[in-house]
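We treat protein structure as text, and this decision shapes the records that our systems exchange. Below, we set out a record of this kind in full and without editing:

***
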Amino acid sequence: MRPQNNILLSKVLLGCYANGFSNLISGSQILRGFNETAKLGFSAMSGDNLGSQPRSPLRNYQVVVAATREMGIGKDGKLPWRLPSDLKFFKELTVTTSDPHKKNVVVMGRKTWESIPLENRPLPGRLNVVLTCSRSSDITTGENVVICGSIPSALELLADVPYCFSTEKVFVIGGGQIFRETLNAPGCEAIHITEIETRFECDTFIPFIDLSCFQPWYTSKLLVENDVRFSFATYVRVRSGVTACPSNTKAKSTTGSPNCNNFEVKDFTFLPRMILERHDELITK
């Protein structure tokens, strides 16, 4: 192997330990990332060039949340409703990938992590990124758990090797403070929201979806479970060039499919396949 290739492989290997030696990615994923990097022509770079490259861009992401009409998402650190079908939807959305060799990412705050029952964490089949500023955190890292100090640092890490090759989609899943930072931010490509129509008392709220930045892509029929009325909806970013979004515009529940001519972005392959299929079913009815 040439010297510059040795340098690159070292960079890939070191990327696996960005948050400590416990964050080990499987050998097959390392080699896969190295091979893909080589195909892009990086192997021709010298060691000096590698060291002088600009920092990785931030990874785009999608938000997954359940909220009331007033954008309430919780009470006393828990969900005020019990919706097994919503949990099933969440799992299918965040686990399913187009590439069987890759995993999706779920990004969450420490409190959301701690709210997951011990027997269910880390969430299986996904890379769990936990955000915490605490240096004394007792979160155990491993193959499927990474700790980051902030949203920007997490999105930068996920944009770099090996995660840019080993992961497919990034989903932000809570809690309140994390949603307030990410919901209408420029890096958010789509918002998958379970719209709770039944009234619930909440003490945690998030910003309304800004309809000047996002437009409804798909809305399911109204469903009822455990006396709770709700529907599934997906909003996608209207324009690719938006750099800032006010967060005081209330999102209204809609039915039917939007006119795709209203979108500046025409390629929606960044959306999960199940959402694309549900949209197609809607517009053919």
Summary: The longest strand covers residues 228-237. The two ends are 57 Å apart (CA to CA). The CA atoms of residues 192 and 234 lie 4 Å apart. Confidence is low (pLDDT under 50) at residues 2-52, 241-261.
